[in-house]
Write a structure and sequence with these properties.
VC0802-like, alpha+beta, single chain, 8 strands, eight-stranded mixed sheet, about 35% strand, 2 helices
């Protein structure tokens, strides 16, 4: 692991990861979330937001929980996502990662939440629940 201690916080809400068409406009419902991430490519419009705001009929995966890496993180820090993803991959826990200017968010399915927390504690991470 790195020369610094990783501190994470498990956020309370449930999130959904949605897939819309690349031609779709950003929907208003996504912007109602306390945290949201929007990525548009040539292939799709991907939205992560509180699942309570996702309307019926939207292609999505729900029941994600977010672990926020407490930041802000300096851009010179190396290996944060690889350290976290390696520890979770060794426990066969799938992730969905979101990076922002200041920090990273690691989403894990709610049914793997406790296993993820224990795996990260085992590598020396401090987790606020």
């Amino acid at each position: 692991m790195q020369d610094f201690k990783l501190e994470l916080k498990l956020l309370e809400k449930y999130y959904g990861v949605c897939r819309l068409s690349s031609e779709d406009e950003i929907p208003r419902w996504a912007l109602q979330s306390d945290i949201y991430s929007i990525t548009k490519t040539h292939d799709e419009l991907s939205i992560v937001c509180n699942e309570e705001h996702i309307p019926e009929g939207i292609e999505c995966e729900k029941q994600w929980r977010a672990l926020k890496v407490q930041g802000p993180l300096d851009f010179s820090l190396i290996g944060i996502l690889s350290t976290i993803s390696r520890a979770l991959a060794q426990q066969r826990i799938s992730i969905f990662a979101i990076s922002t200017y200041d920090t990273d968010y690691i989403l894990v399915k709610d049914d793997k939440r406790n296993e993820a927390v224990e795996a990260l504690k085992a590598i020396g991470c401090e987790i606020e629940i």
